C-alpha cells in the first residue's frame, strides 16, 4: 500500500477456489475522496481456453458479498469455459453477477451497504431490479427497495 497508485485493485482470476478477502478489505476500504489509498476494486473471472479449470458461481457471489460489505467496486469479467456454457456473455451471467463497477463509479455505495428484504439487492448492484422493472431501484424503507413495492 506504500506504492503510489491512482487505483489499487485485486484480480481474482482465474478464480479456482473460494477465497476470503475479508481480513484485507475492511482494513483497506476506501472512504469517499480517498481513491487510491486502499483497495478500490476486486476483479473476478474464470479460466478460459484449453484445459480451463471450473469456477463455481457461489465463489464469485461470495466475493461480491465481501465487496458489498467493504463498499469496494466489484467487476465480474467472465465465467469459466470449463463449466459456464456462455462464459463470456454478460447477459447470460446470473443476475447477481451482472456487475461491472469501476472505482470511480457512483453505483458503489460508500455509505449504505443495506440489502432489500424481498429481493436481496443492495441498490448498488441491482441489475436484476432493472431487468424486472426497467429502472434502477432506490430505497423506500431501510430494508425495502422500490422494485419490490
Report a brief summary of the structure.
By secondary structure, the chain is an alpha/beta fold. The protein contains three helices and five strands. The strands form two sheets. The protein has a three-stranded parallel sheet, with helices on one face. The chain has a two-stranded antiparallel sheet with strand order 4-5.
Structural key phrases:
two-stranded antiparallel ribbon, 5 strands, 149 residues, 2 domains, 3-stranded parallel beta sheet, alpha/beta
Structural overview:
- Pfam families: DUF5131 (PF07505).
- This is Phage protein Gp37/Gp68.
- The protein has 149 residues and is α/β, with parallel strands linked by helices.
- It folds into 2 domains: 9-108, no CATH class; 114-149, no CATH class.
- 17% of the residues lie in helices and 13% in strands.
- The protein is built from 3 helices and 5 strands.
- A 3-stranded parallel beta sheet has the order 1-2-3, with helices on one face. The chain has a two-stranded antiparallel sheet with strand order 4-5.
- The longest helix has 14 residues, at 57-70.
- The chain is globular and about 45 Å long.
- Residues 109-113 have low confidence and may be disordered.
